[in-house]
Design a protein that fits this description.
The protein has 8 helices and 7 strands, in the order E-H-E-H-E-H-E-H-E-H-E-H-H-H-E. It is an alpha/beta fold. Helix 1 links the parallel strand 1 and strand 2. Keywords: Oxidoreductase.
Length: about 260
């Protein structure tokens, strides 16, 4: 019987020093995986890895830097003896009305969200494909957003970047299949989570005058969500574990909404 047991598997999670990435790292470890916590934040990342236990580790990674990816993946495969799962979670959310768009900030967000994810897929493929440092195939899980499926004011470029992750995921799955890499590629669309990033968005849209208060901004999101609440970090982390596991062995090139129905 297929299970979500990830014992014996090596999983690298980007942006794992806090928020959703930290929750994903814990969920993967709880499912039995050995977790490589990857982030720019060395101190916080090391603390997360330490909390997971001695069998796990922290690896410095700038997701926008090709050589940083190469170094990190090489270090992970050397230390743990392989690589089976890559979760491309690292991302930025910058709130701006289109009329006030800051090109420099927008470019940085696209660089992290889109190029960072694309480089993650690139180096996952190189490590996991036949002849790679790991060479046994595996699973890539990209983190998109409900923002890819809705029209919410002030997040146009963020929404565009997350829509790009959806397209990237589907093309990557096709390339992996056609080239015989043996790597499944899927993505998750998280709903709004009441963590630092989510509440930051609520503060931003209130500051822009789109809502009279943070509470009303959050209430508007809940009002659009059939499940009647914000997402919890564990909701998203559980979906990542599922897509990384053998229970999802014939799910490929798909986007899984974990948004309480908000993006339907």
């Amino acid at each position: 019987m297929l299970t979500t047991d990830l014992s014996g598997r090596i999983a690298l999670v980007t942006g794992a020093a806090q928020g959703l990435g930290e929750a994903m790292a814990h969920a993967l470890a709880d499912a039995g995986a050995t977790v490589a916590v990857a982030d720019l934040q060395d101190e916080r990342g090391a603390q997360v890895a330490s909390a997971l236990g001695a069998d796990h580790g922290f690896f410095h990674l700038d997701v926008t830097d090709d050589s940083s990816w190469e170094t990190a993946v090489s270090a992970v495969t050397e230390r743990f003896g392989g690589l089976d799962v890559v979760v491309n979670n690292a991302g930025l959310e910058i709130t701006d009305l289109i009329v006030d768009l800051d090109a420099a900030k927008a470019l940085k967000m696209v660089e992290v969200n889109v190029i960072g994810t694309a480089l993650g897929v690139k180096h996952a493929f190189r490590a996991m494909r036949p002849g790679g440092a790991a060479g046994k195939g595996g699973a890539v899980v990209n983190i998109a957003s409900v923002a890819a499926n809705i029209a919410f004011p002030s997040i146009a470029l963020y929404s565009a970047s997350k829509s790009a992750i959806d397209r990237l995921t589907r093309v990557a799955a096709m390339e992996s299949g056609k080239l015989g890499y043996g790597v499944r590629v899927n993505c998750v669309y998280p709903g709004l989570v009441g963590n630092e990033m989510g509440i930051g968005l609520a503060n931003d849209v209130t500051g822009l005058g789109l809502f009279p208060s943070v509470e009303e901004a959050v209430g508007a999101v809940i009002g659009l969500t059939p499940s009647g609440r914000l997402a919890e970090q564990e909701d998203i982390a559980d979906a990542v574990v599922f897509l990384a596991s053998d229970r999802a062995k014939f799910i490929n090139g798909a986007g899984l909404p974990v948004d309480g129905g908000m993006g339907m």
